[in-house]
Amino acid sequence: MNQSYFAADSVVARLHSDPALIVGGIRALMEQALHPGAMAGVAKYSDFRDDAWGRLRRTGEYVALVTYGPRNEVDRAAERVRTIHQRLGLDTQEELLWVHASMVDAFVDVALRSGAPFTERDIDDYLHQMVIFAELVGIERASVPSSYEELKDYICDIQPKLAATEEAKRTSVFLTFPPMSLPLRFATPAPALWASVATLAAASLPRWARDMYGWPAFPGQEQVTNRALVTFRKNALKLPEFMRMSPYAKAQRELVTSDPSI
Fold first, then answer.
1. Whole-angstrom Cα distance, residue 13 to residue 68?
2. pLDDT tens digits, residue range 203-253?
3. pLDDT surpassing 90 at residue 133
4. Under 8 Å between Cβ of 17 and 159
5. What sequence ranges are listed for the domain ER-bound oxygenase mpaB/mpaB'/Rubber oxygenase catalytic (predicted)?
6. Fewer beta carbons under 10 A from the terminal one: N or C of the chain?
7. Helix, strand, coil shares of the chain as percentages rounded to 5?
């Protein structure tokens, strides 16, 4: 039987099913944009702006597939991602590692600040297990932060190489106000809902990142943001599970239910 890379009860599977990652995913894109080399490749070759929703959806689907899907499908998808990275010129170890580490940083930080039930040991286990994610896209295992302390050290060490370029700033605005069809924009609350979530994602960025973007800060901002993250997660948990659960996660659950030995 072709099992997943991560067990259904693994910390990776649990964290990636948490609704806090709705905010964490958008923050990850804003954080990733701060690497000039990675941002230049995306801006030059990517169709991000022409197919915003498609790219966001595909990124989420890839994370869900690697987390919950069968290994043969994951391996094929990872090969496609490596090919895309090569086409975009995003295949240097530094750029790939930044994209991975900033994603993990955003996921972990937002989950913890939202009140998700993860201990320090859980987070270290998460970082250790997420090395698989990095290896699948071609990152050398030895360079990948595999504990929370290593991740914090890496983020600190790479900051001198980061900058909020004009392209990064345009991307952050674009993520907050992406193009939508006229019916969606004027006949539904989607624009306001999306902007509120994206604004929360931006507010959740670490202080050094917000400073790079030149965004103003106010006294008590961290506490206000944390309360907003907790409120968002509590409200999101009230949604029906079918609206929050990836089809890959559902398929994995059904497989485990039918065969408890998995």
1. 7
2. 999 999 999 999 988 899 999 999 999 999 999 999 887 667 777 677 777
3. yes
4. no
5. 14-230
6. N
7. 70, 0, 30
With the C-alpha atoms ordered 159, 160, 161, 164, is the resulting torsion angle positive or negative?
positive
Contact 65, 73 (CB under 8 A): yes
C-alpha dist (Å) from residue 154 to 94, 107, 150: 11, 16, 6
Q: What is the dihedral of CA 140, 108, 173, 187, to 10 degrees?
A: 120
Amino acid, res. 99:
V
Distance from C-alpha of 262 to C-alpha of 259, rounded to nearest angstrom = 6
pTM recorded for the entire structure? 0.89
Tokens of residue 39, six digits: 């941002």
Pick from 120, 127, 114: which is nearest to 204 by CA? Answer: 114
